[in-house]
Amino acid sequence: MSRTSWPNGAGGALSLSFDNLGEAAEIELGALDPDAPRGRHLTVERALPSILDALDEHELAATFFVEGLNAELYPDALREIAAHGHEVAYHAWRHEQWGDLSAAERAENLARGVAAFHALGLELAGLRPPGGGLGSGGVQVLREAGLRYCSPAGRGVGAQDGVALLPFQWRHVDAASVLPPLAPVREQMTGSPDPLDSAALVAFLGGELTTLVAEGGFMTIVLHPFMLDWLGEERLHELLNLVAGASRRDDLWVVPCANVADRVLTDPHSEHNAVLDATSWTGAGG
To answer: How many Å is the maximal CA-CA distance in the chain?
Structure first.
């Protein structure tokens, strides 16, 4: 999308996003003991309140991509996210690697999620596919399920068959700072494959925000509640302060992903230049 297409003459559009909630991904990976208690996960009981308070303090709205299982385990938490003015979006039912599912499995997964969230009074607009890939058939399953956008791995912004494409880049993901398979991403970021500390990540993202203002386009920052101890509340506030400052100056249009998707789908001046990649959490960074 061209610079002049964003509201208030902003240089670029930015969405803050938070991926994963509760124990859904741990269950999918087989990392949680079958006898372990459900419904008392630290990301919900400890990390989420801190994140919501920080977003309130900086007057920022974000998108929370959460697994559908949370509609059963943490319905009140999902309602609270929405009550704070944030978007609740989909991250598969149990963090299944989206690109590894068949089209029929993805359709069933989406239908289950849409119904579970609808029962809570939450309407899903978009999906971020775990692993970053859309799989065969691309956006067709999403469109048939009534979703307006998806946020796979890639770059740029655009639309396909009536579905907005709002890609994330691995270098804008907090976990890319430490995950061994994403060492090539760190090398792109800093020239070294060594793990980054939270201060280095925030400094890097600050530079990326400056570039976004200068060059235009769309960017989404991807944070994880389970990474909050690593990031630290001080660094979280530092990052949110950078984003809020850019928003107040109208340098950036900072809104949830659904708002960006609506703009992309309705603005006749949109430039559809989204380029997707096949990088996975379990693959090499790109």
So the answer is: 55
Please give the domain boundaries of the chain with CATH numbers for all domains.
10-276 (3.20.20.370)
Handedness of CA 142, 148, 151, 157 (dihedral sign): positive
pTM of the model: 0.95
pLDDT at position 33 is: 84
Say which residues have a Cβ less than 8 Å from residue 11's Cβ, sequence separation at least 6: 3, 212, 213, 214, 215, 216, 251, 252
Count of CA atoms in the C-beta half-sphere (13 A) of 248: 9
At residue 176, the 3 state secondary structure works out as: helix
Contact, 127 vs 142, CB < 8 A? yes
Please name which of 246, 244, 222 lies closest in space to residue 59, comparing C-alpha atoms: 244
CB 5 within 8 A of CB 267: yes
Instruction: Report pLDDT digits (tens) over 44-53.
Output: 999 999 999 9
Low-confidence ranges of the chain (pLDDT < 70): 1-4, 279-286
CA distances from 133 to 96, 144, 189, 225 (A): 11, 18, 22, 22
Closest CA to 252 of 3, 23, 11, 77: 11
Picking from 216, 193, 229, the residue whose alpha carbon sits closest to that of residue 270 is 216
Q: Which two three-digit tokens encode residue 150?
A: 């998806």
Residue 225 in tokens: 């509640």
Over residues 153-187, the pLDDT tens digits come to 999 999 999 999 999 999 999 999 999 999 999 99
